[in-house]
Amino acid sequence: MFNNTKLDRARKRSSATPDAPMSLKSRRFSLEIEKCILCDSETPKSDIRNTMTMNIDRRLNECARTLNNGKLLATLSGGDAVAQELKYHKNCLSSLYYREKAHLSFLDDQEKCDSLETEVYPLVFSELVTFIVESKSTATDPLVFCLAYRIKMFKQRLEQFEVSPLMSTVHSTMIKDRLLAEIPGIEAHESGQENCSSFQERYWARVIKSF
């Protein structure tokens, strides 16, 4: 009887022993999984970094505001990244910095372009007005100015000042209206699908083709 009891106990211990290491291993593995705040993916603790300095916290906030990243801003609103023990992948942080740099570069280029256009547009328009007025004063034949051709000249002149025609906005109607307002005696006429301008004292049907 005694031997049978010891044997039963030994069998029970033997059957329970293999499960213990697996349970510990599973629990230890689950504790080592962390989530990256930038990509939201779960990853082993060994592949992720802790936010250890306030400089990283500052840069995370700067990037979140620059890129208007609502999700990251919401996370950072809970306190500084160090205190929250936020985790990140090294590549995700580098990608965030790169996106911020690219965005700021785009804004800077756009600002320069807008500033250049603001300075150049009045100059180029005044040159166009001068060209039309001087052409009238020296011409012996009636003058007709085809709007499409003048717009083409306007854009080409902008390009000489390094204002890209793709970035610039040149509205034909706006140019026509400004020419009518700036030059005394000029009026607009239409012939077919072409818009032309001529001076009031000389009106004729001849139209210079646009090209």
Structure explained in plain terms:
The protein has 7 helices and 7 strands. The chain has 211 residues and is mostly helical. The chain has 2 domains: 2-103, no CATH class; 110-199. The strands form 3 sheets. The chain has a 3-stranded antiparallel sheet. It has a two-stranded antiparallel ribbon with strand order 1-2. A two-stranded antiparallel ribbon has the order 3-4. Strand 1 and strand 2 form a beta hairpin. Helix 3 (54-66) runs antiparallel to helix 4 (70-76), helix 3 runs parallel beside helix 5 and helix 5 packs across helix 6. The longest helix is centred in the middle third of the chain and has 49 residues, at 90-138. Residues 1-22 are annotated as: Disordered.
Short description:
The chain has helices spanning 2-16, 19-31, 54-66, 70-76, 90-138, 147-160, 172-182; strands spanning 33-35, 42-44, 49-50, 87-88, 144-146, 186-191, 194-199.
